[in-house]
Write a structure and sequence with these properties.
The chain contains 15 helices and 9 strands. The protein is an alpha+beta fold and about 375 residues long.
């Protein structure tokens, strides 16, 4: 009988052990770790994410129950107090690096977005995670509440989080978005919170094509009215120039204003962009696709451990968030590389039930592709 590693071990092979150890040496603080390695920390926390463990005690107890299967993972005994101390003290930047490495691997196998144009399509957005101020005093959001904000730039090619940043609850969305380094020709679709005319001018200078909703009260003059196909929800397609003194100073370029009425809800939307080449209905569809970033936040909050934390320090919280993002990319890579039609939540549920089983991922995820061996077939035929 062929020997197979555990399902968890096969998943973690997606992280290069050699590169991980090099990164761990560069991102180390204080005295050398003797009883536990950063790799053991990563395995323990990733297992906690995959299996939905709700406390450090739960994580350690699960590892202890499977200690005979941890040797081939390169993990020794993990003590709760030591895991807590490493999460608190050792830099979380190590796992940010692993996230970026996994992201590069995922991009190589991810499908494209659903639009016909070839431009990269990204959606920046942010979500609040509420924290108890008495337990997390460093995360002060108001006098009585604590919070942090997770900023994501979602790449619609595979719905991958191509950019992740964590700030305090008061962190400005637009300030974080301005740090994004976007490839020339990319289309960035953002909510009205990101409408800063100085940023729009900067994006135009970089050859980036923003699509956003026009805020109410913005003063403009129509320079040109273009024809459009009737019956597709489009109500206007205009070239405009901003006319207020401040907005004209920040953004002196011509912009495109597209009006659209949703035939299902009857709600009217007005979009603003510097893209004059795509059809007006395509502009509306691009903005509608922005909803995928909301679905991404909903998924990670429901399926990964990023709302309740296993440590109270800022470093422990960031460590848990970055490892959660790494786990998301591992699941995405598994889906794309195996061309699975399952939803990520279905894949996660299947893995949760088989993390420490010794069977191949191929047998687990695609059993129909593997015909029974000759001995099994003969036994089945011999049955009365």
């Amino acid at each position: 009988m062929a020997h197979h590693g555990t399902v968890l071990g096969q998943l973690l092979k997606m992280v290069s052990g050699h590169e991980f150890e090099q990164d761990a040496r560069r991102h180390h603080k204080g005295m050398r770790l003797r009883s536990m390695s950063r790799w053991s920390q990563f395995v323990a926390m990733a297992m906690g994410q995959l299996s939905g463990r709700c406390s450090l005690r739960d994580v350690v107890a699960n590892l202890e129950a499977q200690k005979q299967k941890l040797y081939h993972l390169g993990v020794g005994r993990v003590a709760r107090s030591l895991l807590s101390r490493v999460n608190r003290d050792q830099p979380h930047e190590l796992f940010e690096l692993q996230f970026n490495r996994l992201l590069d691997r995922c991009r190589g196998v991810a499908p494209g977005h659903r639009f016909r144009f070839k431009n990269p399509l990204l959606s920046p957005d942010a979500t609040h995670i509420d924290l108890c101020l008495a337990v997390f005093p460093w995360a002060k959001h108001s006098k009585s509440k604590g919070a942090i904000k997770v900023h994501v730039g979602l790449d619609h090619a595979g719905h991958l989080p191509s950019f992740v940043s964590v700030t305090d609850g008061k962190g400005s969305d637009i300030e974080v978005a301005q740090t994004l380094r976007l490839p020339q020709g990319s289309i960035i679709v953002a909510d009205r919170l990101y409408q800063d005319f100085g940023w729009l001018k900067s994006l135009d200078a970089q050859g980036v094509l923003p699509v956003t909703r026009l805020k109410r009260g913005v003063r403009y003059a129509v320079r040109e009215r273009r024809s459009y196909a009737a019956g597709r929800g489009v109500t206007s397609d205009q070239t405009i120039a901003l006319t207020s003194k401040e907005s004209r100073k920040k953004c002196p370029i011509l912009l495109r204003r597209v009006g659209y009425r949703d035939p299902e809800t009857g709600k009217h939307y007005v979009f603003l962009t510097n893209n004059f080449h795509l059809a007006p209905r395509t502009i509306a569809d691009i903005y509608k696709a922005r909803w995928q970033v909301e679905l991404f936040f909903k998924w990670i909050k429901q399926n990964l451990r990023i709302k309740s934390f296993l440590g109270t320090s800022r470093n422990a919280v960031l460590t848990q968030i970055w490892i959660a993002m790494c786990v998301y990319l591992i699941l995405a890579y598994l889906k794309f590389s195996n061309r699975l039609k399952w939803r990520l939540s279905e894949i996660l549920r299947l893995l949760q039930l088989n993390l420490f089983e010794r069977r191949t991922l191929n047998d687990l995820l695609q059993p129909e592709r593997n015909p029974p061996n000759r001995e099994t077939a003969q036994l089945q035929l011999a049955l009365p």
